User: What shape does this take?
Amino acid sequence: MKSKAAPSGVMLYAKSSGPTSFSSLWSIKHALGTEKVGHTGTLDSFADGLLVVLSGHLTHLVPHVTGFTKSYEAIVCFGKETDTLDPTGEIIKTLAPVTKEQIEGILSKFTGAILQTPPAFSALHVDGKRASDLVREGKEVALESRQIFIYGLELCEYLDNKAVDGCTYAKLKVTCSKGTYIRALARDIALELGSCAHLCALRRTQVGPFRLEDAACCKSLGEFTIAAGMVSESKIRLEKENKSLLERAEEKLFSKKKEKKPRPKDSEEKVADIKSHFLEFDSELAALCGFECDMLKPEAERNYNNGRPLSSRMFERMENLAVNKEFYVQDEIAVFYKDSSFAGIIKKQPERLHYGFVVPHGKKSIRVFTWKEICDGAFPHQWKKKGSAITVGSFEAIHKGHQELVDFVLAEKNLVSGIVTFASSISREDGRNIFTLRQRLDFFESLGIDFAIVIDFNEDFAKLSGEQFFEILSEKCCLKFLAEGKDFKCGYKGSFAMEQISVLSVKMGFVLKQADYVEYQGLKVSSSRIKKEIAAGNFAEVREMLGRPFAISLKGHKFLKKADGSDLSAFETLLSDDQVFPEKGSHKVVVSFADGNILHSELNIEENRISLLLPTQKYADNAVAVVF
Assistant: This one.
């Protein structure tokens, strides 16, 4: 089951050499299930390293993050210059290379505030066109120099390779302001020394407070050395030379368009890695980005969401936060609702507060993971740092006993709350749940649970021992608190009971909370008991044990009108295999619809189908549940 759209947040992604920054976003969109993403600073296709991607409402903050200082490592080839100043271009100049001592002696001249002329091959616009496009058309481009700031510039590695290719190589570490071109910096350093240069390779290592080592897919980049940079340039040039002559001829003679190749599917491990690095925009992350943070008072929420005039009385300062002074934002405040969800940005003016943008206060969304995704490492690192409070079970009814377990989990305010459940019933009786998986997830979401792990019970999972099961939860989800009923069992053939789990909790360092049975009319409340009462049509007793009415989900059902000629028509559909049903017969019910409306009606259950009395086909098409 797909999780809902990604909330407002930050994605740190390690782009590899080759793809453009824009095309790299596809993997992030696919993994997070959202289209609304934007990166905060382009990396050339030949370069690799950190992309900071914002999703959801946080795309409003792209200009803020774009303005952060950035750090790079660059492999510079001294003695040869290309027209693009990078490995994708043609060599246009060859001069004597420079020594290590010459480089070390000149770097201080290129620190602090300096003027820099951007490369002609750049995305900057001249008369409405990209400068690089104009150059490719054979036109001369004159770009104005502009002031940039180099905060740090050091030589990390040097190689004298004159005997092989007539060049020397340097690995430079650069920390600079927005708008700095590292290609142009290498060009200007070489020019000052009476030589020429171009970049073999470039890696972005930091954007503001965000570091490459904390990014998804970082481990796939490999070592960044002079030798690695030289190999990277050779590969780029080889790929360029190996372009098919036939393909070139066809493009020239027949203007044949390339067929769009299907995008290769990302591996499950890569998707899991991306999911695990998604950072929800909470107050700690806002403070890291330099924002002061305010909590919106609940009584002011309606006025705030309706765009009424702002007043300082509507907010409380969140004091216990370490605001990053290096990137401190003087004129804007990040706002959060009482439940800690992001509410938007307000702007400070000399006389009054103004709206930046507002994030409407929707209900908290539950994040859903498969068991394989968890094993592959998809659980967010942001959550692992906090630790998780979990309860495990089939939860096919989510009766009062289950709700008590959920209450124990939610009471652990400093931990991330979660449930582990199954995609379908593992009961040997009839294989049907009292509620569908979607109903159960919606209910857990309404209670405020942060995440759900949904297990598709199969032969491989059945072979897991109880200890292995909890080892995975401990390692992958940083399990700190577990709530279970006294009769809970797990592992191969249910051989791992509470006695063994209690011993394991001490060994693994998580707190175990055991819940007593919940009774109704002197008997234990259980899913099997509730199923029998549903079958018997005793819905008052079912309501008492569940704590809410029993409801049959109609999502995915297609109702067709029966040709009976009555004023109030009967619409019928096949019975679902997912959910239990009462015995055959007629029942007075309430039908709920997608628009929130309800209608009292009559449900008739036959051998393999159900029928509802509804006014029109439109009602039938929009029915979502039948409540008993």
About this structure: The first helix runs from residue 21 to 32. The CA atoms of residues 392 and 420 lie 5 Å apart. The radius of gyration is 31 Å.
